[in-house]
Design brief:
mainly alpha, Growth Hormone, Chain: A, about 85% helix
Length: about 400
């Protein structure tokens, strides 16, 4: 029982640590930008470096787990992300920072994907949902930590060094449980016999619609989390502490929403829940767009987080129904991959628009993205209903 508990703690600690590492930039970016003499548009370059590292590692994880086991892959991923976070803390020039960001993405990709592989094989659906909620908890801590160290006058780099220290603690946990969580990948008998070729999967319009949707969704969730702090502080004159706190509340509302709204799926139905979530996210983006009343912007940001919470897991769950079970595994892989692409490109595009217009473009940008998500989801729902007939 002790070994099982340690293995469980290791997986939850992994997602918690990743949430902290990923969300520091939500508050730190304006200070990073000024430190290196960059513009808001350069955030896209930084996020692309993160995305390339993440996707490159994620695509290799299956084979690495097959050959070396979960334990060793977690140990390797932990070392890489520690190196990356230390680089954030000590990089003297922009190029060195980009290399550190790439390493952080690579370590995150190894840890995130490996933890999900382990969860898929050993955890119940409910426990897996709680595992993902632990990421949200980490994402609450990251902005609060960064706000605190900057308020103390210690600078944004200390937040990343503290994130690296947390990863060291988690890495020591990996060492303690490496024999318990080390396992081979799927055996030949465990592999699905009814899978279909990649080319056939890509012939489905629903697969392409799903990929486009998840691309936009990544931009909605992380665009709100990334640009709300500069919008509040630099655009609307909100003080550092309350602005950072509301970014944490955003991620906290997403975590709470994932737990609360996920419980009503059976009662409300997946399609109604998705429609309600999109409409609430749209309302939140509209409230965030009102510059004259800061309280409405705060409420709008929290509402976006709460509203989008159940979308990702619900759509992943619906994928087998929409594209067929034979194509589901491949489709889910594509959807997760393009989500990370949307996380990198769409907030980067928002940064370019901010440079050319103003920070007040954030709200309208999120409105457009939310509308597109709503429309594409309705299209997917209608198309899947037709194909099921």
């Amino acid at each position: 029982m002790k070994k099982v508990s340690l293995a469980l703690v290791a997986q939850f600690a992994t997602l918690l640590g990743l949430g902290v590492a990923a969300s520091i930039i939500n508050v730190a970016w304006p200070f990073i930008r000024d430190n290196f003499g960059r513009t808001d548009g350069d955030l896209g370059v930084l996020l692309l470096a993160l995305m390339f590292g993440y996707m490159g590692a994620a695509f290799l994880v299956g084979r690495l787990v097959d050959r070396y086991g979960v334990g060793l892959v977690l140990i390797a991923g932990g070392l890489i992300i520690i190196a990356g976070l230390l680089g954030w803390g000590y990089s003297p020039i922009w190029a060195a920072l980009l290399l550190s960001v790439f390493l952080t993405g690579m370590g995150s990709g190894l840890l995130d994907t490996t933890a999900n592989i382990y969860a898929a094989r050993h955890f119940s659906a409910r426990l897996t949902n709680w595992l993902h909620a632990s990421y949200g908890l980490g994402a609450v801590v990251g902005p609060l930590l960064t706000t605190a160290v900057i308020s103390w006058g210690r600078g944004w780099r200390l937040a990343y060094l503290m994130g690296a220290l947390l990863q060291v603690v988690i890495w020591l946990l990996y060492l303690a449980v490496r024999q318990d969580v080390s396992m081979r990948g799927m055996t030949v008998e465990e592999r699905p016999e009814n899978s279909i070729p990649l080319r056939s999967v890509l012939k489905s319009p629903l697969v392409w619609l799903g990929m486009f949707y998840f691309f936009m969704y990544g931009g909605l969730e992380h665009g709100a989390g990334q640009w709300s702090f500069p919008l509040f502080t630099e655009g609307r004159g909100v003080a550092l502490e309350p602005a950072g706190t509301w970014v944490s509340i955003y991620w906290g509302s997403l975590t709470v929403g994932r737990v609360v709204l996920g419980q009503v799926t059976a009662w409300l139905g997946s399609q109604r829940l998705l429609r309600l979530s999109h409409l609430l996210a749209l309302l939140g983006a509209i409230l965030l767009s009102i510059p004259s009343m800061p309280v409405l912007g705060f409420a709008g940001l929290a509402l976006i987080g709460f509203a989008v919470a159940p979308i990702f897991p619900t759509l992943i769950q619906l994928t087998p129904q929409r594209v067929g079970r034979k194509a589901a595994a491949t489709a889910v892989g594509f959807q997760v991959g393009v989500t990370s692409l949307g996380i990198a490109l769409l907030p980067g595009l928002a940064g370019i628009l901010i440079d050319r217009i103003s920070l007040e473009v954030v709200g309208p940008f999120l409105i457009v993205v939310a509308l597109i998500c709503l429309a594409v989801n309705e299209r997917m729902s209608a198309q899947s209903a037709v194909e099921l007939k």
